[in-house]
Amino acid sequence: MSPVALVFPKTALQGMGARQVIYGLSVDARASSGADGAPRIFPESALPLQEQYRFVTHNLNGARNVDWTHEREWRWPYRGDGTNCEQQAEEYGGSVSDWQEIPGLDFYRAGIWGIGVIVETARQANLVISDMLTLVDGRLADRDTFGFVLATSRLPAATQLQDPLRLSQEIADAAVDLEPYFSMSDDLCEEYSLRFGELVSHVEAAAGMPSWGEFGGCWLWLHDNTAPLTRALLRTGRAFVSKNGRYLAHLREFSDSRGLREREDMASRVAEEVSREFETSSCYFSVLNSDDPEAVPFYAGTFDDDIGFFNCAWNA
């Protein structure tokens, strides 16, 4: 459990197969014991197998009441093959090596629009927004997949929200809309890109004659994917998102005759200039013996561990 809640449009979920749970049955039926890890299954005469994922125990007449109807729960069944996930869970002691391997968590690829997230604090909201942007910018999700992030700490006390109209307005005021991150004007994006290119050219000119050395690719790693500079460089094709979620900017003005170590030092100087002019944190990111940003071995300059790339919203 964590203080991060996903909010889905019900109509979209219903169209994909999600349904309300069934609280108890109208017939007297017992499920199999479920011993040795086997699933607990009712006879199909009592409840079709396809619908048994929806069953929740409900008993108001026994020695101990069981009543979960207040949750009004919905469930979304996973109908695919979970064999690979189960094998990884056994190999890694109950977990999987990559969260994207968990069955059912690819909902952002399922054509659902307007997914929201509710968190407790503004800091958690910022981390979740960073993750959302990484999925969209990396083209793993559509621009309209995510709609808002709501930090409950920004809401007034519950006693002040008894009026439904005020409640709706307070929620709207506390929610963070993602649209501004995608709506910078073309002219402003070009201006940021031009200023960045001039800055890189200045560092290149000040570096003097090239110093030959190791071959490899070198980029500027932009740490804040919400910063105006990052958003602008993405729009103009000057920056891109790696498969690991790093926002890397091309340093095209650097001479190809320079060795990798020299370009790393120059990229560090670019990072200093970017911090001064754009108030955006960054460092170099390089790959030895390759121009592929996904290759290994790779190296990075000095950075603060407290950046969106190392996202852990539930501890924020």
Report on this structure.
By secondary structure, the chain is of the alpha+beta class. The protein folds into two domains: 1-17 and 103-182, no CATH class; 186-315, no CATH class. 28% of the residues lie in helices and 15% in strands. The chain has seven helices and 13 strands. It has helices at 10-15, 83-91, 122-137, 164-174, 186-206, 228-235, 260-278, and strands at 5-7, 19-20, 22-23, 55-56, 74-75, 115-119, 146-151, 175-177, 216-222, 239-241, 247-249, 282-288, 298-300. It has a five-stranded antiparallel β-sheet. The chain has a four-stranded mixed β-sheet with strand order 1-6-7-8. β6 (115-119), α3 and β7 form a beta-alpha-beta unit. The model has no long low-confidence stretch (mean pLDDT 89).
pLDDT < 50 runs, ≥5 residues: none
Cα separation of the termini: 14 Å
- Please count the beta strands (DSSP E, at least 2 residues each): 13
Q: Report the biggest beta sheet as strand number plus sense, adding barrel if it closes.
A: 5 strands, antiparallel
The number of distinct structural domains comes to 2
As a whole number of angstroms, the C-alpha radius of gyration is 26 Å
